Amino acid sequence: MSYTYTVSIPHYNSPHLLKRMLKSIPEREDIQVIVIDDGSSAENVNVIKTLQHKNLELVLLAENKGGGHARNEGLRRAAGKWFVSVDSDDFFSEDAFEVFDQYKDDEIDCLYYCVQCIDTETGEVTRELKSDIMVRKYLDAPSEKTEKYLRFHNRESWNKLVSMKFIRDNNICYENCRVNIDVFYALSIGLKVKKYKAIHNKLYFFTENPNSITHKKRNLEREFQFFLQVQKRNGFYEKLGLKHYPFYRRTILYIPHMLKKRGLSDTIKFFKMIKERKQEITEARKAYLYLFDE
C-alpha cells in the first residue's frame, strides 16, 4: 500500500511517552506509522504491543543496536511519498499534518519547519533549539549566508519532511552510530537538496526531561566519541569552505568547555586521549567526504 506520509519512530523503554507521540499523529488512511523498538525490556515491549494506531507497524529488534540502526530500519520500511523520523518522547502540533497537506503535492525535496522546545512535564518553553534558530534565520532574512545555516547547521531529523523519491535517488540514510545520530542524515540532505521550502509554522514539540541521558554526566570515552563526531563534521565543513564559526569547531575550544563541565583533571585526561588517538581523529575527518563524490 502507498501512503502520503511515513512517520518513523525509534523507541527505547519509554512506552508512556510513545503513546503521547502516537496520539499526536492523525488516524488517517494515508499515514504509515512505523515504531522501531530498539531492544527495550520485556516489560516495556509488552506495553507497546498493546498500543494501537491506524496503519501502525511495530518492529521489534532483538537487541539494542543504537538510534542510527533503528532509524535506518524505519527508512527501509517507508512506503510514503513523504518521510519524517521523530523521537518517541516528542510530539506533533495539532495542525501539523493539515499544514503538511498544503505542501504534499509541491515539487520539492524537503520541507523545513519550525519547532519548539518544552519541558515534558510542565509544557513550559525551556530554550531555543539551534535547528529552529537556523530555520528562522533563513525565513527572516533569506540570503546565501542564511541558506547555509538552513542546510548545514540544522542537524536534526524532526524538523524536516523529506521526499522519499529524493531519499532513494540520493541514497540518503542515517549513520550507524550511537551519538549525534541525525547529523549525517541532515547534512546529506543539506548537501544534495535542490528544491525546498521553509515555513514559519511550529509543527513539532521537542521535549526535555531532566532525568534523560542527555542530562547525565558522560564518561570520558563517551566525551571522546562526541569529539570524533565533531571531527567528522569539521572535515565536511572544511570541504565546503565553511571552516569558521558557527560551523567548524576548533579543538582549542574544548579547553574552556571541558574545564567548565568536568574540571582540570578530566580536561588533562581528555586532551591526553586526543594526543594518543590521532589516527582515529584523522579517519573521522575523512568519514563524510565520500558524499561529495556521489
Brief account:
This protein is of the alpha/beta class and 294 residues long.
Q: How would you portray this structure in words?
A:
It contains twelve helices and nine strands. It is of the alpha/beta class and 294 residues long. It folds into two domains: 211 residues, Spore Coat Polysaccharide Biosynthesis Protein SpsA, Chain A; 77 residues. A hairpin with a 5-residue loop joins strand 6 and strand 7. The longest helix has 21 residues. The radius of gyration is 19 Å and the shape is globular. The two termini are 31 Å apart.
Give the SSE string.
Answer: EHEHEHEEHEEHHEHHEHHHH
Based on secondary structure, the structural category is alpha/beta
What's the name of the CATH homologous superfamily of the largest domain? Answer: Spore Coat Polysaccharide Biosynthesis Protein SpsA, Chain A
| CATH fold topology of the largest domain | Spore Coat Polysaccharide Biosynthesis Protein SpsA, Chain A
Count helical runs.
12
| Residue fraction in strands | 15-25%
Largest sheet: 9 strands, mixed
